[in-house]
């Protein structure tokens, strides 16, 4: 699913801790993950199968990850996107420059070399 959605997979951990999968009748319909770096989270791999879009699956998955981040007392969630900035803006994420990103996130493989520099950086503060 992630490859079909053109999302990076080369650096994903084998354990996939903090990843959620939506399933319908035994079929994977969506996925999302959260990597934790110190007091910050990095949203990874939000994808929903095309035939299951517009049914609220992405919203449910994103809510689960945000609840997880809050339960772990993270300060903020960052993400990189080339295609979904409008969706994330509607969910309270704001764009920022790469220079404004927490050092912990800058050290992640997704930020430092997996995602292209053209990807938009976004952040949501958690209260």
How does this structure look, described?
It is built from 4 helices and 6 strands. By secondary structure, it is of the alpha+beta class. It has a single domain, classed as Gcn5-related N-acetyltransferase (GNAT) (Aminopeptidase), CATH 3.40.630. It has a 6-stranded mixed β-sheet with strand order 1-2-3-4-6-5. A hairpin with a 2-residue loop joins strand 1 and strand 2. About 4% of the residues have low confidence.
Per CATH, what is the topology?
A: Aminopeptidase
CATH homologous superfamily identity: Gcn5-related N-acetyltransferase (GNAT)
Strand content: 25-35%
Which shape, going by the Cα principal axes? globular
What does the average pLDDT come to? Answer: 86
The number of distinct helices, counting runs of at least 4 residues, comes to 4
């Amino acid at each position: 699913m992630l490859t079909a959605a053109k999302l990076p997979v080369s650096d994903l951990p084998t354990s996939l801790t903090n990843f959620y999968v939506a399933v319908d009748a035994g079929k994977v319909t969506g996925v999302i993950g959260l990597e934790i770096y110190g007091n910050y989270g990095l949203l990874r791999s939000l994808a929903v199968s095309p035939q299951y879009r517009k049914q609220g699956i992405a919203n449910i998955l994103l809510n689960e990850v945000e609840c997880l981040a809050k339960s772990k007392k993270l300060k903020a969630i960052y993400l990189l996107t080339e295609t979904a900035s409008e969706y994330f803006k509607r969910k309270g994420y704001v764009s920022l420059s790469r220079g404004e990103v927490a050092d912990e996130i800058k050290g992640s493989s997704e930020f430092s070399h997996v995602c292209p520099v053209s990807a938009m950086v976004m952040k949501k503060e958690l209260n």
